[in-house]
Design brief:
Layout: H1 2-18, H2 22-35, H3 41-51, E1 58-62, E2 78-82, H4 99-107, E3 118-123, H5 129-141, E4 143-151, H6 181-189, E5 195-199, E6 205-209, H7 227-232, H8 234-238, E7 240-241, H9 243-255
Helix pairs in contact: 1-2, 5-6
């Protein structure tokens, strides 16, 4: 984290001297603010696993890149990792596959057991709406009834962070990219079948549960997934809450 802070500080000072573009400055300032938020996604995932009160838990991470960033920090009796190795060539994961390939083979019993269900599945793969939508659907099919699907990058701080492609280096957000993950998460925010919320930290940690009432479905009308409408109605669109509010919801569900 200190190295990341130093990088954004150097960029911030350089751009501030050379440019007067308010959009550029806003994106840099919001990136800096986001990387300093706590708790981290690993803290939230570990809390969710512990909240189940189980002696043994199963955890799956989709889109690992460097395991040191998150996977190695997760406390679970059984952990599995999936990544095709596009962004991190060393790729020290259990299954060097795309998420589509992994779930297809898992469903056929070609890897692990098709009866296996996970207590938490963390999705941090390709940050496009289409792929994230597929990952959520597959993850929900392989989580336990009281388990959680967790997603990273659900709360892009500016429109440039929510750009369609990572490679657009002229973006005011530079190489910080949340992609269009928020669109897939918002789709499930509209669903009456599952419950969901987004913790306002670490670029937006989305949580979906089949059982625990994390919040009511969103009533925001945004059929074409326009960022301007997300910005205007961010809190209700994402059910944006604090970590302590999540703890209260889960404690209440456990005691009911």
């Amino acid at each position: 984290m200190p190295g990341l802070y130093k990088k954004i500080r150097i960029r911030y000072e350089g751009v501030k001297r050379l440019l007067s573009d308010n959009f550029q400055l806003e994106a840099i300032q919001k990136s800096e603010a986001e990387i300093n938020k706590t708790p981290l996604r690993s803290d939230i995932i570990n809390y969710l696993l512990a909240s189940l009160g189980k002696k043994e838990t199963n955890y799956l991470e989709i889109g690992v890149r460097n395991p040191a960033n998150n996977f190695d920090k997760i406390i679970s009796s059984t952990k599995y990792s999936v990544d095709p190795g596009v962004e991190f060539k060393e790729n020290p994961v259990d299954f060097k596959l795309t998420s589509d390939e992994f779930f297809e083979q898992l469903g056929k019993g070609q890897i692990l057991s098709k009866e296996l269900r996970f207590d938490v599945i963390f999705v941090d793969g390709l940050h496009t709406a289409d792929q994230t939508d597929k990952d959520i659907e597959n993850a929900l099919a392989f989580t336990t009834e009281n388990g959680f699907v967790v997603l990273h990058d659900c709360n892009p701080p500016t429109e440039s962070h929510a750009r369609e492609t990572y490679e657009y280096w002229a973006s005011p957000a530079m190489d910080y990219w949340s992609g269009t993950t928020w669109k897939a998460f918002f789709k499930y925010r509209k669903s009456p079948v599952v419950h969901s919320c987004c913790i306002d930290t670490d670029w937006g940690v989305g949580i979906i549960s089949k059982k625990i009432k994390l919040g009511s479905p969103s009533t925001i009308h945004n059929p074409f997934f326009e960022y301007s409408l997300l910005e205007k109605n961010r809190k209700e669109s994402l059910n944006l809450i604090r970590f302590d509010e999540l703890k209260t919801l889960i404690t209440a569900a456990a005691s009911s």
